[in-house]
User: Which sequence fits this backbone?
């Protein structure tokens, strides 16, 4: 069962390692983790995605939420299911090939050309996480040189917020 | 002002009277400043001992004090009459243990003690020296990333970069160690920061937006709990270390007596309702049969300040079909090991007070349990320790090590006694340094360290600390010439005592412990026949005394 944890933390050194360490030492698996500073310089926001296939997902879900809240650096935790969230991921793909043929596919899939050289094109796509795989597929007529994903970031749907 | 002096001033502002530690290049500026202050410094012989001593210190200074008594009256067999029932003294203003050691290997040596305090939720402040700020990350001599290494075992940690932050960091560290669920806090201070000039700005009140522990439980939840207890046929209280650390021992006793609800404790809860008829003893793997039977038979469990560890309730499925009220200050403990019917996030004392207020009348006038009068076939060791309990002064501290000696010590019942041990981490070598800390915290108490020959050898060097400070620590080594509990466990899974190079036999290397103590100028004797006269000599001694009890 996939869970999305939005975590507001104090923006100071050591926080990321504390949070990551909590997951590893308690045996909780992280599927992705993205972190960045918020509109206030002293707060960072993490989006952590977990996928628990175990026998007691509800207990693990509760434990992760409580252990995250217990961290002294944690200001707020909101744990949601994917259907309650807007989920986005940024993907960069460096392709071998010519810009004109890549451009067509980009238009079709809502991607942008971020940079190009004589024989490579780097495209950027913002998508829901499930769509990323199909996008890779769409470009498989090109030789993919390398790719990178930011990890999922998320905001709750509707008028609610973490505050 | 020098930052080293600012550290001392900030500690004085927190009411610190004693610090345990060991010098070294990276902590020397602070220790030099400390030497000029009124704070007493106890020089130990190994870093881990500084942490264990701080642990023992925190646990005893957090207890209501015992009145100073006339020692002439103390050691007669009717010693119980010496103190009034409610010998409540003044609580230390800030019952926290403090230790200070140097960087690198010194700081790393403190890790077992930090982890020990974390496992048992004991408030200690660990101050470590660090290499110069500019050298951090360069693999300098005696450099270790101690904030990183200690992260899994601390409530919080600081690496001080700005000398001006010292007053606020130290104030916050003391707050965090005590607030909510208590625990160790680490402050790592580079040596150049200690030597820098700083401005001492008095910090304001601590108000952390990211840390606001819940003290008073949700009143709706407490009301539901009370309804459940009122309807219970066989309610049972399970009291853990949280009851002691929240100062709720008296409150729990009042609550249990008013409603005639029997009480069991975990190992960390020993010392709660000692000697009271409602107390059925300790639950768990090494617990008392009355307590474990009551746990099986109860229909409603009221778990207060206990985390339901697997040594206390090895098989959580026995709680199936029972209603469970679980009150703890740490929300993460609720639902971690068992799923409670009614979880209550609350300080234990507050919970017990609020719950009691909601009862219009006592739910019962008779406990549903009966204590078995069949005394389990008492072995000679049990008998020996019973005699010790009979002679010991009220308020005596038992500082137990880890292993079979700890289980034997856990059966000792002394009026107003305090039992301290490494419950969660099972850190061998805890006993002697913890006894040193306990005695430093309250010189009016008798402190008896009960250790095994295995655990004792892990902190044996602290006999030097006992000698150097003339500490009247009483030591009983229950000497079975082996790592007894490990041997028992190994035999259970089919190992012999020595199988394929596996051995728990300590006899080939054991020293003559009595002779060893004598070499430190500590009076000692070897007891081979459980001669209980040795107990009188131990307790009557005005200075340190060691018994090597060969079993």
Assistant:
């Amino acid at each position: 069962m996939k869970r999305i944890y939005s975590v507001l933390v104090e923006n100071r050194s050591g926080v990321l390692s504390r949070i990551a360490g909590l997951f590893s030492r308690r045996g909780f698996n992280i599927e992705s983790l993205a972190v960045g500073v918020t509109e206030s310089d002293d707060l960072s926001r993490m989006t952590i995605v977990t996928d628990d296939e175990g026998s007691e997902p509800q207990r693990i879900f509760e434990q992760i939420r409580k252990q995250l809240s217990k961290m002294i650096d944690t200001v707020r935790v909101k744990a949601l299911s994917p259907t309650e969230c807007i989920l986005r991921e940024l993907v960069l793909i460096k392709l071998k090939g010519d810009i004109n043929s890549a451009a067509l596919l980009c238009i079709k899939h809502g991607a942008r050309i971020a940079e190009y050289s004589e024989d490579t094109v780097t495209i950027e796509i913002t998508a829901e996480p499930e769509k990323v795989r199909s996008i890779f597929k769409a470009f498989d007529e090109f030789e993919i040189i390398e790719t990178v994903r930011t990890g999922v970031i998320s905001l709750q749907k509707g008028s609610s917020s973490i505050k | 002002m020098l930052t080293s002096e600012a550290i001392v001033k900030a500690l004085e502002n927190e009411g610190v009277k004693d610090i345990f530690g060991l010098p070294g290049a990276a902590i020397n500026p602070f220790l030099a400043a400390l030497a000029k202050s009124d704070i007493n410094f106890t020089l130990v012989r190994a870093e881990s001992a500084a942490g264990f001593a701080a642990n023992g210190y925190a646990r005893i200074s957090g207890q209501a004090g015992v009145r100073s008594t006339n020692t002439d009256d103390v050691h007669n067999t009717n010693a119980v009459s010496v103190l009034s029932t409610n010998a409540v003294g003044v609580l230390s203003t800030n019952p926290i243990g403090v230790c200070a050691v140097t960087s690198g290997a010194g700081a790393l040596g403190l890790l077992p003690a930090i982890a020990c305090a974390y496992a048992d939720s004991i408030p200690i402040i660990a101050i470590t020296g660090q290499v110069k700020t500019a050298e951090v990350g360069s693999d300098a001599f005696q450099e270790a990333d101690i904030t990183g290494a200690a992260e899994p075992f601390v409530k919080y940690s600081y690496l001080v970069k700005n000398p001006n932050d010292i007053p606020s960091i130290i104030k916050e560290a003391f707050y965090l160690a005590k607030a909510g669920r208590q625990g160790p806090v680490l402050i790592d201070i580079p040596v150049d920061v200690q030597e820098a000039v700083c401005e001492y700005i008095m910090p304001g009140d601590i108000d952390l937006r990211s840390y606001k522990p819940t003290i008073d439980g949700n009143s709706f939840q407490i009301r539901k709990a009370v309804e459940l207890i009122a309807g219970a046929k066989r309610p049972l209280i399970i009291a853990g270390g949280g009851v002691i650390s929240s100062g709720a021992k008296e409150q729990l006793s009042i609550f249990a007596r008013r409603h005639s609800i029997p009480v069991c404790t975990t190992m960390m809860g020993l010392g709660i309702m000692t000697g009271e008829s409602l107390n059925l003893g300790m639950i768990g793997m090494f617990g008392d049969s009355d307590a474990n039977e009551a746990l099986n038979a109860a229909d409603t469990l009221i778990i207060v300040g206990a985390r339901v560890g697997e040594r206390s309730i090895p098989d959580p499925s026995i709680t199936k079909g029972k209603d469970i009220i679980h009150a703890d200050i740490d929300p993460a403990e609720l639902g971690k090991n068992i799923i409670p019917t009614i979880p209550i996030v609350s300080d234990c004392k507050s919970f017990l007070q609020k719950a009691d207020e909601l009862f219009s009348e006592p739910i019962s006038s008779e406990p549903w349990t009966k204590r078995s009068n069949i005394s389990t076939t008492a072995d000679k060791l049990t008998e020996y320790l019973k005699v010790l309990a009979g002679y010991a002064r009220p308020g005596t501290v038992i500082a137990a090590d880890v292993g079979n000696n700890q289980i034997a010590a856990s059966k000792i019942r002394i009026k107003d006694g305090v039992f301290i041990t490494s419950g969660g981490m099972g850190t061998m070598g805890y006993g002697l340094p913890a006894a040193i800390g306990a005695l430093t915290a309250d010189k009016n108490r008798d402190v008896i360290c009960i250790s095994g020959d295995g655990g004792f050898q892990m902190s044996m060097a602290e006999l030097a600390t006992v000698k150097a400070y003339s500490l009247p620590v009483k030591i009983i080594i229950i000497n079975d010439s082996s790592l007894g509990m490990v041997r028992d466990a190994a035999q259970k899974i089919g190992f012999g005592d020595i199988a394929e190079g596996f051995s728990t036999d300590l006899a080939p290397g054991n020293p003559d412990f009595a002779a060893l103590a004598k070499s430190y100028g500590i009076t000692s004797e070897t007891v081979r026949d459980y001669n209980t006269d040795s107990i009188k000599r131990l307790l009557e001694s005005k200075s340190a005394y060691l018994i090597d009890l060969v079993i």
User: Anything to note?
Assistant: Chain A has two domains: 2-80, 85-154.
